[in-house]
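Question thread 4412

I'm putting together a teaching handout and wanted feedback from people who do this every day. The idea is simple: show students a protein as raw sequence, then show them the structure tokens that encode its fold, then repeat with a second protein so they can compare. Below is the first pair exactly as I plan to print it.
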Amino acid sequence: MEKLEIFAEKRSVTGKKVNVLRREGKLPGVIYGHKFETQNIVMDLKEATKVLNRATGSSIVTLNVEGKEVSALIREKQRDFIKNRFLHVDFQAVSLTEKIRAAVNIELTGVAPAVKDFNGVVVEGLSAIEVEALPKDLPERFVIDISVLKEIGSSILVKDIAVPANVTIHTPLDEMVVLITSPAAEEVVEEIEEGVTEPEVIEKGKKEEEVED
């Protein structure tokens, strides 16, 4: 497995002042975890972005903080989508000898015969599955071959996914990963979704690493 490493330094600047670091091409972050004292860090934005773009939610990232290595999972990435850059990253320190929970991404591959033969529509139910394992045993992703879906109504559930014996699934086994529906059924779903009004979300608080307008 490829080693994903990010070099970082300890950070004393917090709050809105971190915007000064961002203007200098730096990326602020934080490391927290069980039996780990929370630590604010700062990384080179350009170099860190190269690693963050390759890592998944179950990738173990080695944080080299002033010469001390910390194994961690990426828990949250704040991004400025207009400028297409990361603003802040939360890392969870992990022990390589203790099992942890992580979300493993799902990747679909192949062509479903039901799509070719019956003009079926592929409906994706889940984008990730929550699992538990030792950090070294966490899958990078689950690749699901949909070429086994031959008829309208055929599906793949969580229980159908081949998982290594040393990995435990915590997502309900009867949850749908992918389903083939008829075009008519898909149109009905779209009409229902268009008629649903999204509830207004009110922010209860602000994060420490607040970004200036």
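The second pair follows. I'd like the answer to focus on this one:
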Amino acid sequence: MKTLYLIGGTMGVGKTTVSRQLKKDLPNSVFLDGDWCWDADPFQVTEETKAMVLRNICFLLNSFLHCTAYENIIFCWVMHKQSIIDEITKNLDTENCRVIKASLIVDEDNLRNRLLSDVASGIRTEDVIERSIDRISMYQLLDTYKVDTDNKTVAEVTEAIRSL
């Protein structure tokens, strides 16, 4: 049986880093970052582009689910609203698949420090800090496993997800 990991969390919480490590740790794995399905310049958030990115994500995830080479499919994206998670899962063929929905949780101090490091490295712009902090509480409302990342190593977080 396949396992699909849906990993959400606010910007800077460590979704991509954790997902990349899970891909290495789990056998026959493939990883999709939702941001790759919507990497445009200029980045435009419209009803049309939001619908497009969801179609792109579901198409790729279903392709991975139907491919016999993969046992573990790892997907990460911000997914800060239950409606986003529900829209994705309702459009996937998960009949022979275990679906694990996890939200990476972080406190404001840890998140601010991670984002400031990213800004200093040129990975992110400073405007993301307050937007990301504002979303922290939204993840408590979701129907997902909550995985605390505060002061934890990537290995500790991936182990917590693997144990779900």
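Top answer:
Good format. For the second protein you could add a caption like this: Residues 31 and 74 are 5 Å apart (CA to CA). The mean pLDDT is 96.
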